[in-house]
Design brief:
The complex is a heterodimer of chains A (546) and B (156). Chain A has 546 residues and is mainly α. Chain A has one domain. Chain A has a two-stranded antiparallel ribbon. In chain A, strand 1 and strand 2 form a beta hairpin. In chain A, helix 4 runs antiparallel to helix 12 and helix 9 crosses helix 19. Chain B has five helices and no strands. By secondary structure, chain B is an all-alpha fold. Chain B folds into two domains: 80 residues, no CATH class; 64 residues, no CATH class. At the A-B interface, helix 8, helix 18, helix 19, helix 20 and helix 25 of A face helix 1, helix 2, helix 3, helix 4 and helix 5 of B.
Chain lengths: 546, 156
């Protein structure tokens, strides 16, 4: 317990408070701006974290991530233009409320819900993460092999663009991770004789290229409609009746978001969709949804923030990033010389508790900023994308240089930027590739150690209880698409759930015309590669898998 | 209720671009297999440096063939349109940036890249383009050379 309190002492250091503020402000800004998502922003800003203390760096990067969940709401509600994929469902009721002149209420409820969801998730994280870490202390190479494989597979399962494309991207990520000197034998692999590659590909240029530059190039194709100035927002304080009406949705959204955030492959997008579907199904008047039901704003906005917070649990307690944004933060920790894993809490308590407790402060700052300062953030939308693009690209290129003072790294960023752009054009989500790249060396090392341990007998994985269970789950997830037709017929419950999810996408009046929903989801998914807009089938799989 | 699309997307890609993507994946997998065999594939009881890349290479070949079989399912793939030329021009400007930055410092390449992106890719006015690109160079100089003292090559 004392280490938890020490964590507060770490947060309250002026530098850390300052960077927490910087992080949440940046997060909120990029949440407001369509285009760049949190993973891309964090990737682009990686170079500036080098000079910082590890705890300060991660406090700032975490702030960007959950700050973006607040910011994404604003444009969803006011302009029907989700800034982030996790705010896509907020569009339905949020914008309907705006049309009724109640934009302020929607934004106020979203901010309060986000705050409650985020804060409850931090409290739960405080108790759950140490338990998970404690449990994982006994994990050996076979368990890590199974866990890393399961993580990659789950991320691929809910990725946008389909699982075949996602698995392909992941396999390429694993292959990229093998470039450089082999840890066991020092043999040089796939370096093509290039000295710059002898130590392997660096994570920073890959993340900056695939996420950052790739998204900038993709957005260059003038796919965004001209954003008109939004209406002014009056009275952001929700009435007592509004609060009473949304309190249930906020409570349920917090719990649902928390659990969906912990799952590998889960996260804010899935949580927001599921929470909206849950409220709609529970409601006595489901027909109100899509026409300005306040719960339709409260539930997804609460859930996405709770999930953004709880997705730190697998990263900080197992060392397995649950989504692409966490993969970038994982990379940031490695660069700082910190290896996330079960030993992090005991060996580096001030980092662990400093980051966790900074989220309380960050959420308070966001609540303060998002209610009275909404108008200010909305004004950012007036800055044209054509002016932001060259600024972002130059920050990326110059930033890439500063990491190793290497022109070669700028070249790598450009190369991976082109790859990222082509992947997006061809329907491949770069998220699984970055995640697999980050986990690649852990996976290979664990696999080879396991094989040595089992003397080459792969059945050894199944004889150890934990790795056996994890691999069984892995096989279940892998085989589910084949069993789906059977499941659909045999379990009416799952089928009903399936329909419920579909309604989120198709049943609401705004989404019925083919135009808006698809491109929004796609564009926003491009903004946050950590997860795509999940299709109904995959959420059914996830339900059955867990 | 407004029905105009929020975003405009190019039309879906045809099967050809999917087939090319699938072929690239198969070739990549094949190259990985060839490379790993050269490194020494090892055996399950004694995994060598080539074992893991060999597995991934094999997986890639299988995934690539599966992609080829399903080439008609275009998913979210987009066709390359004229606006793709903007991207090509953008990439060319960045390659030029990298090529000269080590010899002539970052100021002139930064100015030119910003100007090209603003004026020709973004269709901003001459005035805005000139003022913004000069502004970017000044801010970058103050930030990277002045405040952060980064070792980036610079003229002044």
């Amino acid at each position: 317990m004392s280490s938890v309190l020490d964590g507060f002492a770490v947060v309250l250091e002026p530098t850390n408070l300052l960077y927490c503020l910087v992080g949440v402000v940046i997060g909120m800004l990029i949440g407001v701006l369509p285009g760049l998502g949190p993973a891309a922003t964090i990737a682009i800003l990686l170079p500036i974290t080098f000079g910082l203390e590890p705890v300060t760096a991660i406090i700032m990067l975490a702030g960007i991530f959950y700050g973006a969940q607040y910011g994404g709401t604003i444009t969803s509600v006011l302009l029907r233009l989700p800034g982030e994929a996790s705010s896509v469902v907020t569009v339905f009721d949020g914008h309907a409320l705006t049309r009724q002149g109640r934009a302020g209420t929607a934004l106020g409820i979203a901010a309060i819900g986000s705050f409650v969801g985020g804060t409850l998730a931090i409290i739960a994280l405080t108790f759950v993460a140490p338990l998970v870490a404690d449990f994982a202390l006994d994990f050996g190479p076979p368990e890590y092999t199974a866990l890393a494989l399961l993580g990659i597979l789950l991320v691929a399962t809910i990725s946008s663009g389909g699982r075949l494309r996602a698995l392909t991207a992941a396999a390429i990520g694993l292959l990229l991770a093998t470039v450089g000197r082999d840890d066991f034998t020092s043999a040089e692999r796939f370096t093509l004789g290039n000295l710059n590659l002898a130590d392997g590909l660096d994570f920073v240029p890959i993340a900056m290229g695939l996420f950052g530059l790739g998204e900038i190039l993709y957005n260059l194709e003038e796919r965004h409609r001209k954003v008109q100035a939004p209406a002014t927002v009056a009275n952001v304080w929700p009435s007592r009746a509004d609060l009473r009406q949304s309190s249930g949705a906020i409570g349920r959204g917090s719990v649902l978001g928390f659990f969906l955030g912990i799952l590998p492959g889960g996260g804010a997008v899935l949580a927001s969709l599921a929470a909206y579907a849950l409220e709609k199904r529970r409601s006595k008047h489901p027909e109100r949804f899509g026409k300005g039901a306040i719960e339709g704003v409260a539930a997804p906005e609460t859930a996405n923030n709770a999930a953004a917070t709880s997705s730190f649990i697998p990263l900080l307690s197992l060392g397995i990033p649950a989504n692409a944004t966490m993969a970038v933060i994982f990379g940031a920790l490695l660069i700082q010389g910190v290896t996330p894993g079960p030993q992090l809490i005991t060996e580096n308590p001030e980092l662990f508790w400093g980051v966790v407790n900074s989220m309380y402060i960050g959420n308070i700052l966001l609540l303060i900023m998002s209610i009275p300062l909404v108008g200010l953030f909305v004004r950012i939308l007036r800055v044209r994308a054509t002016i932001l693009a060259p600024i972002t690209v130059l920050i990326t290129l110059v930033g890439a240089y500063t990491v190793n003072n290497s022109v070669f790294d700028i070249g790598l960023v450009i190369a991976f930027g082109v790859i990222g752009y082509l992947m997006k054009k061809l329907g491949f989500d770069p998220g699984p590739m970055v995640l697999a790249f980050v986990l690649g060396s852990l996976l290979e090392t664990s696999l080879r150690r396991s094989l040595l341990l089992f003397d080459g007998d792969p059945t050894g994985f199944f004889t150890r209880p934990i790795s056996g269970v994890l691999l069984a789950a892995l096989i279940a997830v892998a085989l589910l698409p084949l069993a789906q037709p059977l499941l659909r017929r045999r379990t009416p419950l799952a089928a009903e759930k399936d329909r419920g999810e579909e309604e989120v996408g198709r049943g609401t009046p705004e989404a019925r015309d083919p135009g808006p929903k698809e491109p929004q989801a796609k564009q926003a998914a491009a903004g946050t590669p950590d997860s795509g807009a999940p299709d109904p089938n995959t959420s059914e799989e996830r339900n059955s898998a867990t | 209720m407004s029905t105009e699309p929020v975003d405009e997307r190019p039309p879906s890609a045809g099967p050809l671009s999917n087939l090319i993507a699938a072929a690239v994946v198969v070739i990549l997998g094949g190259a990985a297999i060839a490379g790993s065999l050269a490194l020494g594939a090892g055996s399950p009881s004694e995994p060598g440096p080539g074992t893991w890349p060999l597995i991934i290479g094999a997986v890639l070949v299988v995934l690539g063939l599966a992609l080829a079989v399903r080439a008609r399912d275009t998913g979210e793939a987009e066709r390359f349109t004229r606006s793709g030329l903007l991207v090509a021009a953008a990439v060319a400007s960045m390659i030029a940036f990298v090529a000269v930055i080590a010899t002539i410092g970052f100021e002139i390449p930064t100015l030119l890249l910003a100007f090209v992106w603003l004026r020709f890719l973004g269709h901003e006015s001459w005035r805005t383009s000139i003022i913004t690109s000069v502004g970017i160079v000044v801010v970058f100089y103050a930030l990277f050379v002045g405040a952060l003292d980064v070792t980036i090559p610079h003229l002044f």
